[in-house]
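Note to self: keep these together.
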Amino acid sequence: MRFYPGHIAASVFFELLGILFNLSSFVFIVPFVELLFGVGDASPHSFSFNQKDISEWMSWQLSVWSERHGVLYCLLVIALVYLACSFFSNLFRYLALWFLAPVRNGIVERLRNNLYRRITVLPVAFFKSHRTGDILSCMSNDIADVEWGVISSITSLVKSPVNIVVFSATLVFISPTLFLYFLLVTPVVFMLVGFVGGHLKRNARKGQDKLGSLFSVIEESLANIRVVKAFGAEERQAAFFASVAGDYRRRTNRVVSLKELGSPLSEILATIAMAAIVVIGGSYVIAGRMHPSVFILFVVVFARIVPPIHNLVKSWSAMQKGNAAAARIFAIIDADEVIVEAPDALSVSSFNGNIEFRDVSFAYTDSVSDNAVAMGSNNIVLNHINIVISKGKTVALVGPSGAGKSTLVDLLLRFYDPTGGSIVIDGIDICRFKIDDLRRLVSLVTQESILFNDTVANNIAFGNTAATFDDIRRAAKLACADGFIESLPDGYDTLVGDRGVTLSGGQRQRLCIARALLKNAPILILDEATASLDNESERQVQAALQSLMHNRTTIVIAHRLSTVRDADVIHVLDNGRIVESGSHDELVRLGGEYCRLLASQIV
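Structure:
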């Protein structure tokens, strides 16, 4: 991540100039008071770099000017110089903030982009063990907390230390003794702030976890709204949501109370320090150990050091909350990929021979999948699978739910890696291929018609962004989709809505088939592509599938007979093993598991 060192250096430089001009304006407080009240020393003094000699030299010069031009003229000059110093001080402070703006916005942009990119790269297993609500909370609320808690604090973290150092040096120059009394209070401030900050960070992390639960409830309710309404569960879901929201509110109240505690603590302690300085400094003036105008200058400069300390404390509290959010974000960014591309990975652009599953076994870990629970304590999903799929052939995988059919194709796409055995394409283990190249060899059509809230044309071209409109339309025609697309309000430019909600099930599935056709990959996977359709929609989609399967190596996962009858080879899976293999006619004559499935109309 880029940290903009040039911008930060420029900001510090202009902030320093602003502080120096601000201090320059305060320098005129001593001669102003002496001139106004006539207490200055008019005797000649030489200039040397210490507080006493500088004050006496300025008093002498001002006395000479007042005798030559009059007191009112000198007051006017002092006022104009003060205004000039104030103008340049504010100008340079603005430039310091101007240079920091790209730092803040740039870091947030890169953090958001890195998080989204990481989400798209992480393996499927990651999303089986992390709630969607937690991920959405990271993308929205946690990013906002980092922006306002950490990134926004960059301004204070650049300005405040520079201010504190410069003003502290000035106070030491004016009166080291009085500054020493101020230092006695400072450690107490930072100890209290550190104590509060530790509690704040822990509570902020718990609060963000609660917010993730809140997002999960919202996401689940929206995704399953038809079920919620059908079962009359609106009140029950509302009560559950209110319970989670109440937990989040209570945790947030604690975070806010801790976050706001640091500011009054620092202000109270600063006030105590100011009171002590006024009493001690006043006694010095009364005893004649300090000139009144010098004491006034010390108090004014000390008053200027309090706001930077106050801002630094506030920033520290905000950063503790932001750090808790950042920890959740980096837990995703730093998550293990699991599916790792080999350093010397091979490029692949064609498929010419066979796909071989060589003694393939696979087991989910307990944290990865609910299927693992269903399979028993050993979590074995596939057990010593051996399949050869020749180019141009159609192979069907059938069997009861949970037999491992979809897991087989997930392994081919490297959504997971086998825990035993290997998968080979044209004699080369797929783990040696570049992952993107491997997945470009495969087109996938699933039972769920997955569309994006975009135009019809962009959904078809999702896997081939270089496609022309003619290419898109040709694919739509082959998928038997061109007719209904033309009847849409804006044709191919019609927005399909969230998840294609404006289209029927058969229409959505034909768009998915057109998308697979346009990708034009040599290997096709049909994962129960017609299972959720009615008879008429299935007939239309089946016609489109015939175009899609032509001259392609096809793996069909299906329950319906219509999609597997003509397969070259049918493999029957049960409990993660292949129990039968052969053509439809061969398996019927065998009279085994396939016949049982056929008779019960599960196929």
